[in-house]
Amino acid sequence: MREGTWRNPHTFEQGVEFLQEHSIDYEVAIAGHHGALMTKESWLDDVAGGMFVDHDGYGSQVTSGGLLTERIHPSAADTLMRDDTSYILWFNK
Questions:
Q1: pLDDT reading at 1 higher than 90
Q2: From 82's CA, which of 45, 56, 61, 89 has a CA 20 to 30 Å away?
Q3: pLDDT of 29-55, one tens digit each?
Q4: CA distances from 5 to 27, 29, 35, 56, 86 (A)
Q5: d(C-alpha 74, C-alpha 83), whole Å
Q6: How far apart are CA 3 and CA 14, in angstroms?
Q7: Which pTM was predicted?
């Protein structure tokens, strides 16, 4: 699968497929929101390792069906993560 670009980002479905072989898909558009898609587990690991901090940006929680739910900042990862979240769509500042 080709990589998404800013002008031609992956859909949610393409992003999920891309994640089967990659840890992050940098160009994904979901419901008009454009960001980097990763699994919840991958994002939580990266937050714990200090790769994502509040100063960098924020994420939107995404269900397994591609529905954007609530915004989340790395500092709140342990307390505000929804049970139905499967992915994070990350937005850099």
A1: no
A2: 56
A3: 999 999 999 999 999 999 999 999 999
A4: 6, 10, 11, 21, 23
A5: 16
A6: 10
A7: 0.94
Q: Token pair of 77, please?
A: 């990862």
Q: How is residue 37 written in tokens?
A: 């898609």
Using the Cα atoms of residue 53, residue 25, residue 16 and residue 29 in order, give the sign of their dihedral: positive
Order the strands of the 33-39 sheet from edge to edge. Answer: 25-30, 33-39, 87-92, 57-62, 68-72
Q: Taking a C-beta distance cutoff of 8 angstroms, is the pair 58, 76 a contact?
A: no
